[in-house]
Amino acid sequence: MVMSDEEQVENLIRNWAAAVHAGDLDGVLAGHAADIVMFDVPPPYEGVRGIDAYRETWPPFFEWQAQGAAFEIESLDVTAGDDVAFAHALLRCGTPQDFADRPAQRLRLTVGLRKEDGRWVVAHEHHSFPEAGDAL
User: Fold this and answer.
1) Tens of pLDDT along 40-87?
2) In the predicted model, is pLDDT for residue 134 greater than 60?
3) Does residue 46 lie in a domain region?
4) Which domain, by its residues, includes 119?
5) CATH number of the domain to which 109 belongs
6) Mind listing the pLDDT tens digit for each residue in 96-124?
7) Alpha-carbon distance 7 to 129, whole Å?
8) Under the phi-then-psi rule, with left for phi > 0, alpha for psi from -120 to 50, and beta for the rest, what region is 117?
9) Does a structural domain hold residue 136?
């Protein structure tokens, strides 16, 4: 059975999140464009550009995550056209203490994708948390 574009994008993002949770750098990089642009929670505030710079952001995150942090998709919505797609998701990302302190806080994820040689690749990734003062 052939998967729809939406299903292909959803699988790509779910596999990426599973790789992040597992600390699997090769899995995290899979499905990303060579010219990826990522805006992340930690600096640099101008973001990172290119797969090499993207790769360098993950080891510190994996070290933090190894202290017992979760990285789990709670909701994921995908819209796909013939050659571009976008998705947005909410993730539980934090330590048990983070969840005790702010149980409703979620990591916001926005992903922009394009088709290259018939397969979807992530061209843009944006992670953010709401300002702590905004949470009720």
Assistant:
1) 988 888 999 999 999 999 999 999 999 999 999 999 999 999 999 999
2) no
3) yes
4) 5-130
5) 3.10.450.50
6) 999 999 999 999 999 999 999 999 999 99
7) 26
8) left
9) no
Predicted pLDDT at 133: 61
Amino acid at the residue 131: E
Specify the residue for token string 């805006």: 39
Please report, for residues 39, 41, 50, 62, the alpha-carbon distance to residue 55 in angstroms, rounded to integers and kept in the order given: 13, 15, 9, 12
Q: How many domains does the chain have?
A: 1
CA dihedral 99, 18, 53, 107 (to 10 degrees): -30
Asked whether 122 and 36 are in contact (CB, 8 A), the reply is yes
Dist CA 20 CA 69 (whole Å): 11
CA dist 122 → 25, 52, 69 (Å): 15, 14, 24
- DSSP state, residue 17: H
Residue 101 lies in a domain: yes
Is pLDDT at 136 greater than 60 in this prediction?
A: no
Average pLDDT (12-33) is 97
> Tokens at residue 48, please?
């990172």
Residue type, 93: C
